[in-house]
C-alpha cells in the first residue's frame, strides 16, 4: 500500500470524530477489540477446560453444548479458539515489537546520517528481503528448535527491514521541513531532533505498518504452527488445530472450518483497522475515495 | 539509464554474495555432525573422522566456503547426505513441480486481479467497487493453507473432481499432472490475486487523477480508451513490482501448500532436508531460491524501463 507523509494539523477530538465515522476503522476496531477481549477472557474462563481430554466426546459436530464441535480428543473447539487467540496475539505482537524496536532506530539512523550509513542500512535491508521469509522462518525454527519463542524471533527478524524502510522513508520526508531547520538552528543535534521531532511525526505511519505486520504475523504464526514448528501442543494454537484437522476433514470438517475462520476474522479486523487509520490521518487518500 | 542498470546489477551481485555468506554461516553454527548422521550412532570415532576428511568437513572455514560457493557457480551443488545423489538431480526432479505450480498460480492471480481492479475503478465509489474491494479485503485475510484445506474438502472429498493430494509425475501424462496442480494453484493464487487487485485499483486511481488523463479525455477519447491506453500502462509500475514480489514468494512460499497437497516440490524438499539435517541440500536450495528472488527483483527493475520510457532517457 502507498503511505503518505502529510501530517494533518488537527486536534484529538477531530480525529476521534473522524475515526468513528470511518466505516473501515470502525469495523476493524470492533473486530480487533472483540478478538482481544476473547483472548483476555480466556485467561479467566473458557466454556470447557482445554487441557482435559474426554475421548468419549471426540469429534462431535457443533451443538448447543459445543458451539464449534469437538476435536479428536474431545476438546471443545470454541474454547481452544479462545485460548489460541491469546497465543496468536502474543506471538504477532512481540514479533512486531522486535521489528519496530530494531527497524525504526535503523531507519531513523539511515535518514539522519545519510551517505555511507544510509547505504549500509539499505543494503542490509535488501539482504533480508532476498530471503524468502516463510522458508527462512521454517529454517530458523527447525534449526533452533520448534516452539513459540523461536517462531517469534523468526517472524520478528523479517519485520525489521519493513519497519526500517518505512521509518527511513517517513523520516526523509520530515527532515527538509522548516521546523527541523529551526531545531537545528537552535543547536539541537541529529539524535535529539530525531527523538523530539522526527519520530513523533512518523508515529502514525509506523502504526499503520504495525497493524499490517501484526496481521501478517498472525498468518505466519499459523503457518509455522501448521507445519509443527510454531506453538507446541498441548497449548492450543490456530495453526496446529488446522494441522490436526487435515487428516479428519472427511468426518469432522468443523475442526478445520472454525479455527480458519478465527484467523480470517482476526486478520481482516487488523487490516481494516490499518486501512482506517491510514484513511483518517491521510487527507490525500480520503480525497480519492 | 545505463548507470541505473549497472547500479542495480552491482547491488544484486553484492546481495547475492552476502546472502551466500549468511546461509553458509547459519548452517555452520548449527549443531549436528553430518558425518555422524550418515554413519549412524554405532560408528566409531575413527570412521566418522575418516568420512569427515572425505567430505572435506575438516578443511578451514574459508576454504570450505569458497569450495561451496565455487561449486554453486558451476551448478555443482554437492551430494545429498541422505539420498546420496547429486543435489542438482534432486533440484531438477523437484523444480518441474514447483516452477509450473508457481507459474500457473501467478497467471491465475493476474488473470483474476487485473480485471477486478479495472472493474473496481470503473465503478469507483459505487456498490460494485465496494463489493469487489470487500472481497479483496477478505481474500488478503485468508491463509492459503486453510483455503487449500477448504478446497480439498469441497472438490476432492465432497465432489471428487480432483485428487486430494500427491503428484503422479509428468510421465503420467500432462492432464493428470496438471489436474493435481489445479487446487494448489488456486489456493496459492486467490490470496495473491486479492493483494494484486487492491494494488491495481489504487495505482489506477492515482494515475486517473493525473493531468495527462484529463487532457486525453478533453481531446475526446472515450473513457475506455483512456483507461486502457493511458491509465493501465502508467499504473503498471506498482503492479509489476507486486507481481515480481509475488513470483519470488510463490517460488519459495509454496512450501506449506506443497505440504498440504503432498506435492514433491522444492519447498517440500527443503522442508524434509531441514528435518533430516541434510544441510548440503538445505543450503543449496535456499541459495538457489535466494538467487531466484534477487534475479526476479532485478528483472522487475529492468522491466520498469521497458514500461516507462521516461526512465529510459533519464541519465
UniProtKB/TrEMBL annotation, chain A:
The family database entries (Pfam families) matched by this protein are listed as: BPD_transp_1
Annotated membrane-spanning segments are 25-45, 89-112, 124-145, 198-220, 256-281
* Record InterPro entries: BP-dependent_transpt_permease, MetI-like, MetI-like_sf
Q: How does it sit in the membrane?
A: Multi-pass membrane protein
Keyword Transmembrane applies: yes
GO cellular component annotations of the record? plasma membrane
Q: Where in the cell is it found?
A: Cell membrane
What Gene3D superfamilies does UniProt report for this protein, alphabetically? MetI-like
* Keyword terms: Cell membrane, Membrane, Transmembrane, Transmembrane helix, Transport
* Span of domain ABC transmembrane type-1: 85-274
First-listed, main subcellular location of the protein, grouped into a coarse class: membrane
- From the UniProt record, list the coiled-coil ranges: none
Q: Which CDD domains match?
A: TM_PBP2
Q: Name one GO biological process term.
A: transmembrane transport
PANTHER family named among the record's database cross-references: OLIGOPEPTIDE TRANSPORT SYSTEM PERMEASE PROTEIN APPC, PEPTIDE ABC TRANSPORTER PERMEASE PROTEIN
Q: Which family does it belong to?
A: Belongs to the binding-protein-dependent transport system permease family.
Q: What is this protein called?
A: Peptide/nickel transport system permease protein
The record lists the organism as Mesorhizobium muleiense
Automatic annotation (TrEMBL), chain B:
Entry's CDD domains?
TM_PBP2
GO molecular function, one example?
Answer: dipeptide transmembrane transporter activity
- Broad class of the protein's primary localization: membrane
Supply the Pfam families for this chain: BPD_transp_1, BPD_transp_1_N
Has keyword Cell cycle? no
Gene Ontology CC: one annotated term:
plasma membrane
Q: Which PANTHER family match?
A: DIPEPTIDE TRANSPORT SYSTEM PERMEASE PROTEIN DPPB-RELATED
Protein name as catalogued = Peptide/nickel transport system permease protein
Protein species of origin = Mesorhizobium muleiense
